[in-house]
Amino acid sequence: MKINPIYKLREVAGESVIVRQGKDGADLTRIISLNPTARLLFEHFSGKEFTAEDAANLLADTYHIDHRQALEDATRWTDELQRCGLLED
């Protein structure tokens, strides 16, 4: 899977948000706010092919957590990206 490149990470009023880039700039009618961990994942995997396992490895290495827990968290993150339409196959 891959994050659709039309979605960009931006700082808005001190919050990390994902916005859709359009022909006339960003579409601010739909904004997705990210916590620091989701931002780390989004920044790391933007422009790259990845799996939930790849995201789990990053989480486990960064936060020194159990791989099982990291995989649950990574799967939840990828499921949310999919639900929001941010992923392409």
User: Quick one: biggest sheet?
Assistant: 3 strands, antiparallel
Number of helices: 3
Instruction: Indicate the low-confidence ranges by residue numbers.
Output: none
Q: Could you tell me the mean pLDDT?
A: 92
Question: How are the strands of the largest sheet arranged?
Answer: 2-3-4
The CATH architecture term is: Orthogonal Bundle
Structural class: alpha+beta
> What is the count of distinct domains?
1
Secondary structure: number of strands: 5
CATH-derived topology: Arc Repressor Mutant, subunit A
Portion of residues in beta strands equals 25-35%
Measure the end-to-end span.
Answer: 5 Å
Helix share of residues?
40-55%
Secondary-structure element order, N to C: EEEEHHHE
CATH C-level category: Mainly Alpha
- Please state the CA-atom Rg, rounded to the nearest Å: 13 Å
Primary descriptors:
89 residues; alpha+beta; Arc Repressor Mutant, subunit A; three-stranded antiparallel beta sheet; two-stranded antiparallel sheet; 3 helices; 5 strands; 44% helix
Polypeptide structure, described:
This protein has 89 residues and is an alpha+beta fold. The protein has one domain (2-84): Arc Repressor Mutant, subunit A (Orthogonal Bundle). 44% of the residues lie in helices and 31% in strands. The chain has 3 helices and 5 strands. A 3-stranded antiparallel beta sheet has the order 2-3-4. Strands 1-5 form a two-stranded antiparallel ribbon. Strand 2 (7-12) and strand 3 (15-22) form a beta hairpin. Helix 2 (52-63) crosses helix 3. The chain starts with a strand and ends with a strand. The mean pLDDT is 92.
